[in-house]
Amino acid sequence: MTEVQLQEFKLDPDSELRFEVESKNEKVVLEVKSGYAELFGTELVKGKPYEFHTGAKVAVFTWHGCTIELRGKTEVSYVAKETPMIVYLNVHAALEQQRVAAEQENTRGPVTMIVGPADVGKSTLSRILLNYAVRMGRRPIYVDLDVGQGQISVPGTIGALLVERPASIEEGFSQQAPLVYHFGHTSPSDNIELYNTIVSRLAEVITEKCETNKKAASSGVIINTCGWIKNAGYKVLTHAAQAFEVDVILVLDNERLYNELKRDMPKFVKVVYLPKSGGVVERSGTQRAEARDARIREYFYGKRTPYYPHSFDVKFSDLKIYKVGAPSLPDSCMPLGMRAEDALTRLVAVWGGRALQHRLLAVSFAAEPDDHVLHSNLAGFVCVTAVDMERQTLTVLSPQPRPLPNTILLLSELQYMDNH
Ligand code: ADP
Predict the structure, then answer these.
(1) Binding residues for ATP, per the UniProt record (predicted)?
(2) Please, what is the angle between helix 192-212 and helix 232-243, to 10°?
(3) Residue-range definition of the domain harbouring residue 216
(4) Which of 235, 322, 336, 375 is the 20 to 30 A CA-CA neighbour of 316?
(5) Does a structural domain hold residue 281?
(6) Which CATH number goes with the domain that contains 398?
């Protein structure tokens, strides 16, 4: 039997406690004993226990000093005095000024895009800036273009959320009525044409939303991006900047990217270089895959608040499954007026079969396989847990009870083994 480890840390003002939970099935409980502390911009309640599970990499920051207790086995735990939090707070203050001006002049608030290589804290900075904005009474929009991790919905999608309250410490931002678009892969490089198409579409829809929601419009947008920043990845980023008509680009920890953007962006776009936090943890390919898996499990089963998904059979003949992207032919073989790239956003029918085992299927709001499918947002996802060739049926795990809506399903490359 292992005994529960108890650690107490006294933090000076402007410092943070960093810890990681690595061992399988381990749980660490954190409690603020005295003073004030926040986790990636969300205030912690004194005396309230917060749970962290395997894979968690956490920093609890204090502006005023505090005492924190940790119960359970942490892999690493230390107090760091050097953090970039004051710089991040200054960024928030500058954005806040622009929001005040936008509110007064009835214009759009700052659209901010956060870029940088993998594992520099882009998602974390997005969370901090959104939390600070919402704590000031703003209602910013969070856009996540990182198909590799997929903080909104599941990996393989891009999406947006209206942030109305700070992220919950254990569960992140509330995922009520997110706008989600299907991509189906974990890197934009798998289908750049499709990626750019859905990014443009999401930008359009957000512009429309802002026209009817003045509060959101003046609060602005925070856009998180993928860590793919070189060559074609750079083009994908500049396309997103154009599509969303960004005002500010925050570049984390990459001088080359900063200089390229300074050179290529129009003058009215403010490009700002920011240091990364020494606490940000690099993740291996396996850890990324595990994080993706955990994200999908959370989608179906919940995190702290448990969800109870349904499982039922569907006949192959009742399904309309499509994948996006036909094999590309050279331009010379294409019908007149069509580009080879057009094939990459074409829908191709997929028949029921063993290959669907463990795959995620996006449930589109579109009823017919026409041009609107890629422009329609998603109702959600189901996962194929079994394929019965004899009975010609699939068993699906679904957040909603049967039947599946009679709409188009889009095949994702992502897989999930349901052994809950
Ligand atoms: P990116 O979005 O650039 O890939 P993330 O924001 O996801 O990077 O950060 C990578 C990991 O580092 C996450 O698990 C996050 O919780 C952790 N992390 C971020 N900032 C800190 C910090 N100051 N101390 C400890 N861990 C951190």
Answers:
(1) 16, 57, 119-124
(2) 20
(3) 84-274
(4) 375
(5) no
(6) 2.40.30.330
Ligand 1 neighbour 120 (Cβ under 6 A):
yes
Rounded Cα gap, residues 46 and 21, in angstroms:
22
Please tell me whether the overall predicted TM-score, pTM, comes out greater than 0.80 for this model.
Answer: yes
Q: How many domains are there within the chain? A: 3
ipTM of the complex: 0.99
Residue nearest to atom 14 of ligand 1 (CA): 57
Q: 57 with 133, same domain?
A: no
CA-nearest residue, atom 21 of ligand 1 = 280
In a 3-state reduction of DSSP, which class is residue 289?
A: helix
280 CA → ligand 1 middle, Å: 4
Ligand-binding site membership of 293 (annotated): no
State the Rg of the chain over Cα.
Answer: 22
Q: Is residue 303 part of a domain?
A: no
Reading the chain (420 residues) residue by residue, the pLDDT tens digits are 455 689 999 999 999 999 999 877 789 999 999 999 999 999 999 999 999 998 899 999 999 999 999 999 998 999 999 999 999 999 999 999 999 999 999 999 999 999 999 999 999 999 999 999 999 999 999 999 999 998 899 999 999 999 999 999 999 999 888 999 999 999 999 999 999 999 999 999 999 999 999 999 999 999 999 999 999 999 999 999 999 999 999 999 999 999 999 999 999 999 999 999 999 988 899 989 989 999 999 999 998 788 999 999 999 999 999 999 877 666 666 666 667 677 888 899 998 899 999 999 999 999 888 878 988 999 999 999 999 999 999 999 999 999 988 889 999 999 999 887
Contact 21, 72 (CB under 8 A): yes
